[in-house]
TrEMBL record:
Record-level Gene Ontology MF annotations: DNA binding
UniProt entry keywords in alphabetical sequence: DNA-binding, Transcription, Transcription regulation
Protein name from the UniProt record: LacI family DNA-binding transcriptional regulator
Gene source species: Paractinoplanes globisporus
PANTHER family listed in its UniProt record: HTH-TYPE TRANSCRIPTIONAL REGULATOR GALS (PTHR30146:SF109), LACI-RELATED TRANSCRIPTIONAL REPRESSOR (PTHR30146)
Keyword Lipid biosynthesis set for record: no
Amino acid sequence: MATIYEVAALAGVSPATVSRVFNGNTVSPEKARAVREAAARLAFTPNKTARRLRKQSSEVVALLIPDIENPFFTALARGVEDKAQEKGFSVVLCNTDDDPGKELRYLEIAASEQMAGVILAPASDEADLGAIASLGRPVVAVDRTTPYPVDAVKVDNRAAGIAATTALFDAGHRKIACIAGPVGIEATEDRFLGWRQVMTARRAAGPENYLQHANFRADGGHAAMRRLLALPEPPDAVVTTNNLMGVGALQAIVEAGVDPAKFGLAVVGELPFMFLTPPAVVQVRLPARHLGTTAATMLLERIGGDAQPPRTIVLRAELA
């Protein structure tokens, strides 16, 4: 079945103009004729539910992410904006700081401002989508999923953790620790489960305190790395489950006087800047921008009337 975007492309107008034509709003006779002719050629039938929704919503979508200063989420946001702009939508960016309370306030604002839909990286596995869901607005979860029946796009995070840990083993390291993000966030838990899977399979599992949790920022990785280096039997390598924690861990290694050429570091994500020359640091590249464009495509399809059951798309990470 043809979509509003295909009609717009054939008619040479924006999706917003197609919407105005079928909602009975004023457009020029030439544009109205072009839209109706294109719709007839494509056998396009406006979705009545979608039309009712569009009359009560704007052409603005909300993007809720935890940390705009993290280059991963910056690239993700760029992917969302590029796709939204292409289809005539604007994006309002909201920084949640992984705070469920702050996230809830932004969701309530998106609902009260009648935004057309929401893309969010949930602050926890208990994200409250009640306000936005009650209005029938589409939601797409990105990077992390929610218990709600909504579309989602994420990375195969366990595979990313496995790749990072395996690379350290292949480099000759055996006492490999892991610095993971806060407990309860799906992406980081999947990544440290990948680390644990490799350690168990290689019969190299270390003490329990080889797993350290921290916030997702550089100061979290720095503090966790200092704790690991202070252990009676410190590790000889570490996996960090995001890029900024990797920056902090590397700073702590250098400050402690440890030879970074001999200490293994694998980062899930790409370091925003390099202290060491590749391949001294293993990096598992995450498809951040692709996550953003995919999430935006899914959301725009829902706004356009797509009524198929919720689906989840999983993208692959790869060694840099």
